[in-house]
Amino acid sequence: MAKVAVYNMSGQQVGEIELNDAIFGVEVNEHVLHAAVVQYLANQRQGTQSAKTRAEVRGGGRKPWRQKGTGRARQGSIRAPQWTGGGVVFAPKPRDYSFKLNKKVKRLALKSALTSKVQENKFIVLDELKLDAIKTKEMKKVLDNLKLTKALIVNDDKNVVLSARNIPDVKTISVNNINVYDILKYDTFVVSKDVLQNIEEVYA
């Protein structure tokens, strides 16, 4: 089992903890990581873009000039795509970009992402992460003590979430909403011991 250091909120090491190899010690699979990131980004798309084809643009019912004899190229409508104000050739229409990944693939991707953070020494465990009040300054102090800048903090505590939300490059997320994209996007993954135990129970 992999071991990582446990720190307090002052940035001092206070012990070590063993991680579950079933989650934090798997073989990193880049293919499923890529698939999970592509799916996440696709599912974020609204798919509401829309433009009009030549059949939908207003006007253009009359032939602009006769077919032959004018010396100009033949034209059937002033709303053809080559005309200013004409329709779009392959106009985008509202559509759903989302697609499904198998549960086992998603779970393997998540475990691969967490394992990669452990291997890169970017997995920080705290003995506890709690604030008495909503204070951005206090949260910033904790991050500075741990020398963290771009961090993903897994925590449900209201004071922690509200204190961290105004700090650039820091995001808080609940255990149930952990996703591969955020794990890979942020440099450091930060959890407290109780949250780590929760993650091991949910994803083991």
CATH superfamily of the largest domain: Ribosomal protein L4/L1
**What is the CATH third-level topology name of the largest domain?**
Ribosomal Protein L4, Chain: A
Structural class given helices, strands, pairing? alpha/beta
Widest sheet, order of strands: 2-1-3-6-4-5
If classified by CATH, what would the architecture of the largest domain be? 3-Layer(aba) Sandwich
Family: Belongs to the universal ribosomal protein uL4 family.
InterPro entries: Ribosomal_uL4, Ribosomal_uL4-like, Ribosomal_uL4_dom_sf
Keywords: Ribonucleoprotein, Ribosomal protein, RNA-binding, rRNA-binding
Protein name: Large ribosomal subunit protein uL4
Account of the 3D structure:
Keywords: Ribonucleoprotein, Ribosomal protein, RNA-binding, rRNA-binding. One of its GO terms (cellular component) is ribonucleoprotein complex. The protein is α/β, with parallel strands linked by helices and 204 residues long. The chain has two domains: 3-45 and 99-203, Ribosomal protein L4/L1 (Ribosomal Protein L4, Chain: A, 3-Layer(aba) Sandwich); 47-96, no CATH class. It has helices spanning 21-24, 30-44, 103-119, 136-145, 158-164, 180-185, 193-203, and strands spanning 3-7, 13-18, 123-126, 151-154, 170-173, 188-192. The protein has a six-stranded mixed sheet. Helix 2 packs across helix 3 (103-119) and helix 4 packs across helix 5 (158-164). The longest helix is centred in the middle third of the chain and has 17 residues, at 103-119. The model has no long low-confidence stretch (mean pLDDT 92).
